[in-house]
């Protein structure tokens, strides 16, 4: 694949704007990280739903099959993990909304985050906190801002 002229911040597959990740995040998420020679360049996480590319740089990319965990934001399946620090799956949030009409996950996770009990940089394959993804999901399920 030639990267000629394209914006290096955009996913080569779906065109979504990538989120910069650290090498630490990448090494932790990849299968067989010791067999990978990472290039000295910037890697980004593709947040595109349904897109098979998980990480990309200007010269290469890693797909879902190269990554140890399932990327919950790319899957609609109820068992897909959304919060990697506290092991919350999409279905857990859907169940609570079904039972109570609302979800308390984002406020409970926020409390834990404030106590310093999370490790998103290494656990979440996107390298960023899951709260934003949780809130988006809750908003989609309840149709409100919280
Ligand atoms: Zn993509």
Outline the structure in words:
- The chain has helices spanning 23-29, 90-100, 105-114, 120-123, 131-142, and strands spanning 19-21, 43-45, 53-56, 61-63, 81-83, 88-89.
- Strands 1-2-3-4 form a four-stranded antiparallel beta sheet. A two-stranded antiparallel ribbon has the order 5-6.
- Helices cover 30% and strands 12% of the residues.
- The chain is built from five helices and six strands; from the N terminus they run E-H-E-E-E-E-E-H-H-H-H.
- With 146 residues, it is α+β, with helices and mostly antiparallel strands.
Q: In a nutshell, what does this entry contain?
A:
The protein has helices at residues 23-29, 90-100, 105-114, 120-123, 131-142, and strands spanning 19-21, 43-45, 53-56, 61-63, 81-83, 88-89. With 146 residues, it is of the alpha+beta class.
Compile the SSE list and pairings:
Layout: E1 19-21, H1 23-29, E2 43-45, E3 53-56, E4 61-63, E5 81-83, E6 88-89, H2 90-100, H3 105-114, H4 120-123, H5 131-142
Antiparallel strand pairs: 1-2, 2-3, 3-4, 5-6
The chain binds zinc ion.
Keywords:
single chain; 146 residues; alpha+beta; 2 domains; 4-stranded antiparallel sheet; two-stranded antiparallel sheet; 5 helices; 6 strands; 12% strand; binds zinc ion
Strand content: 5-15%
Give the assembly state of these chains.
single chain
Structural domains: how many: 2
Sheet having the most strands: 4 strands, antiparallel
